[in-house]
Amino acid sequence: MAQYNQDLLNSRGLKITPATIEDLPDLVELVANLLDEQAAFTSNRRKHERGIRLILENPSRGRIIALRNEDHVIGMANLLFTISTAQGGFVILLEDVIMHPDFRDQGLGSHLVDYVIDFAKQKDFKRINLLADTLSERSHNFFARLGFEHCELSPMRLVLSQ
Hints:
This protein is α+β, with helices and mostly antiparallel strands. It has one domain (6-145): Gcn5-related N-acetyltransferase (GNAT) (Aminopeptidase), CATH 3.40.630. It has helices at residues 6-11, 24-37, 45-56, 108-122, 137-145, and strands at residues 15-18, 62-68, 73-84, 89-99, 128-130. The model has no long low-confidence stretch (mean pLDDT 89).
């Protein structure tokens, strides 16, 4: 497992920080690009912006963590907060771990997820639940290398509105 190392990222002109409302255009673009690659979703920038804004404007709902270079957000992780009655405390639902295509396969995504894990430990979260595309073996292998395991639970959904 890679280890989050801000000094290493700094040497490459990169840093990881919580996203802010000023990052909204870059975050929307990252989500849109990801969903354009996935058959199960349809990209809708207006909806992406609304969803991202809901998180950024209310930190009690979650955080968006941004990996940035000098000019743009080049990677992001969406952390949503909920409570587990089984764990007796707060847990994170980790969605939308996204790297800009030009920055994939450089180990940067591992640093981003390790930052998330460090954040969760520091804030005493009990567990991180991950949603990953079932059709992407590459994605599953990436998260397995970082210590995530399959469990007996399987996500299901009921779409209430379009």
